[in-house]
Amino acid sequence: MAAPQTQFEIKELFRVIREIQSILNQNFAISLENKKQNERMEHLRGSFDSKQEELKNLKETLINFSLNQKTLESLIEKESKQIEKLERDIYDLKNLTEVDTAKKKLNELIASKTEHEIKYFEDLSTWEIAQLEVPKLTKFVEGFQSSILELQEETNKLKIDNDTKTKQNLNLINTHLDLFPPVYIKLIQHLIQRHSFKISTPIYSNKCGSCNMQQSPQSVQIAEKMLDITKCSFCGLILMPDGSFT
Ligand SMILES: [Zn+2]
To answer: How far is the CA of 180 from the centre of ligand 1 (A)?
Structure first.
């Protein structure tokens, strides 16, 4: 892809490509930082949602508990009245069979009432324990909420800073690009568009440092000696000399 260049100019192009790549590396690091921050945010939101759901369910359970307790209370009261009445009525009964039936009914009522009372007190202690969880969970949810707000603020600020830095870097790249002959400007702009954060890669053991494909001896020689700008025939990145380039 030779445009007429002196060896000095070609070396200068390599230097600028390296410079552009290092700026793109910075932008890549910034994009990773943004991504990490967004993941933190998402994770915290997820935890917040599940805690809030837990709190909502607990409150609903407590409401249902109250309703059940009220039902039990009125049932116990009704049974107590029936028992009292039956106990009085038994004295007036003359017939033995009627007395037996009444006694049987009375025992059934007492057993049923006892069962309801046991259930009532058992539920009451469960209810009391559950109720203690509400303020704890509420505090937890509130803590989450303020953490989310803080992180959101931090994230917004970081994003603005990072966007500014990324934009500055892209402007800087354009300034560098002005040094290139038009044919190379087009190539580099195309590479940035295609790979976002990569225009070049060093050759390692005659292989492309990015896609790891074997390069032709000519390409390796051209890149290693910086004779011209040459691309990996597989991924299209500009091949740079191995490591030692300054
Ligand atoms: Zn490659």
So the answer is: 23
pLDDT in tens, the chain (246 residues): 555 468 778 888 999 999 999 999 999 999 999 999 999 999 999 999 999 999 999 999 999 999 999 999 999 999 999 999 999 999 998 899 999 999 999 999 999 999 999 999 999 888 899 899 999 999 999 999 999 999 999 999 999 999 999 999 999 999 999 888 888 899 999 999 999 999 999 999 999 999 999 999 999 999 999 999 999 999 999 999 985 443
| Dihedral Cα 184, 189, 194, 198, nearest 10 deg | 80
34 C-alpha to center of ligand 1: Å?
A: 27
Q: How far apart are CA 10 and CA 5, in angstroms?
A: 6
Domains, the chain, in order of start with CATH, read 19-180 (1.10.287.1490)
What is d(CA 192, CA 78) in angstroms, rounded to the nearest whole number? 82
Check: CB of residue 176 under 8 Å from CB of residue 20.
yes
Give me ligand 1 centre to Cα 170, in Å.
24
